[in-house]
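SAMPLE LOG
Freezer: B-3
Tube label: C17
Construct: single chain, 318 aa
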Amino acid sequence: MHPERIYFEKLKQEISGKYRQKNAGISENLGEWNGKTIEGFQNDLQQEVKSAISVRWFYNHIKADNENKIPRTDVLDLLCRYVGYSGWAEFVSKKKEEGIGALVQENNNERLTKKFNTKILMAPVLLIVFLFAGWVIIKRSSDNTYKFCLVDSDTQTPIKNAKIEIKLFMDKESPQTVLCDSNGCFNLNSLPGKVRFVVNAQYYQPDTILRTLPNHSISESIMLKPDDYALMISIFSRSDVQDWEKRKKELNGMFTDDAMIFQVDPVNKRAMEIFNKEEFIGKLIVPLSSLKNIEVIETLYKDKKISALRFIQKEENK
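STRUCTURE (predicted):
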């Protein structure tokens, strides 16, 4: 058994205890969690420590019964932060103070005694072959940390302090939603292989990214193209109109003739009112219009013009 396996088992118990505080009906044993429970835990982990683990990782390290290995330290660190520790080193230190180390030594002694009493001798060459094969299997099956950061394609600068939503599509897994941190980055802990994710950032055009993850950790920048029309509409809604005809002409060129514009509830994001192109432009440029302080949340394009737009109207700053 791995010398620190008993600490990992203790960590699993504390993870279960924390998550069951919010979901009392689920099993105490992480190995018995179903797909829906795992997805809920992924979301809770994302909210608590701003990082994610894949379903494949969960099956490899939680459901698989392998006492001879534990996950990578960087993943253990984020799991420890989830249950209130600074990282794996502090967690192990605290457990040793609680006497868990004595149990580890006892288990090691029992294992050494069994090895000493065995009468089966293994040829040195065969032992080397087995050790090498085990190393290859562990090396190939270990997960890596892949870091992706979003960058403005025009300015070549990081997209910081923005709402950026990532929808991950891993092989044989349900889609998973991840939010970027304040630096516009997110980490993915996964096995090597193909991954697809859709990036949605406010005032940037959505993009679908396809990657084949290598067998080592990487850090990569993803370029996003600004959604200039969406940004202009938001700016127009906050500025005084000096030349109505010019503003009307500018807005008219941004939309297709059959464009549909949806004002949505800022809480549940459901449509409250629907405008056609002429209605929306009219309400946006008339001084007494109620459409002010607009925040665009989604745009769809057809022939380089907006064919659909969803927005919320924020309260005016007093």
